[in-house]
Amino acid sequence: MRLKEDFHHTLIIERSEFICYLHKCLDENQARDFIQQIRRLHPDATHHCYAYIAGAHHELQRSNDDGEPAGTAGVPMLEALKKSGLRDLCAVTVRYFGGIKLGAGGLIRAYSRSVSDTVRLAPKVETVLMDEYELIYSYDLIGKIDHLLKNSADLIDREYGEQITCHFLSTDASLPLTISELTSGQGQLQKTGTRLVEKDIPQ
Question: Looking at residue 53, what is its pLDDT?
Fold first, then answer.
């Protein structure tokens, strides 16, 4: 499971503003570039704390308190990322101090919540291995085929010639048999490969 696109969310605690930015990062360079981008976006912020996690086995893990008391910002942010179940993710929480000190415990809760709340609200995707097919069929079957594919496949394209040729993706293992039955064996279906596809996860 990964972040679909950049996302941010603002949290107000005791007049301090915590703005958490999330970004998909596949390596350390991408994470560092994003952190610098947020620093430039908020040059007058009190703190720019961050954490990121990347790698096939989450082997790359970094965090930074950026002037907050040691262990009160970066580490709780990193723990929130690890608990989220998301891969390859960088979080930068920008703080504008509101004049009221939160104490170590308050800071830990604030920075942890800034990440966990933002992750919960952010759009997410999962990578799914899908079978890729080519189907050739006659025009009189277009209604039946359209209805079937609408509910059980992702259409890639459709070509119109003497017959209709469409390419689609599906995870439904029973689809070849269903198409054979629906077309009385007249539809020419061929599996052409597999593809990793990112699918939206419903909020």
Answer: 96
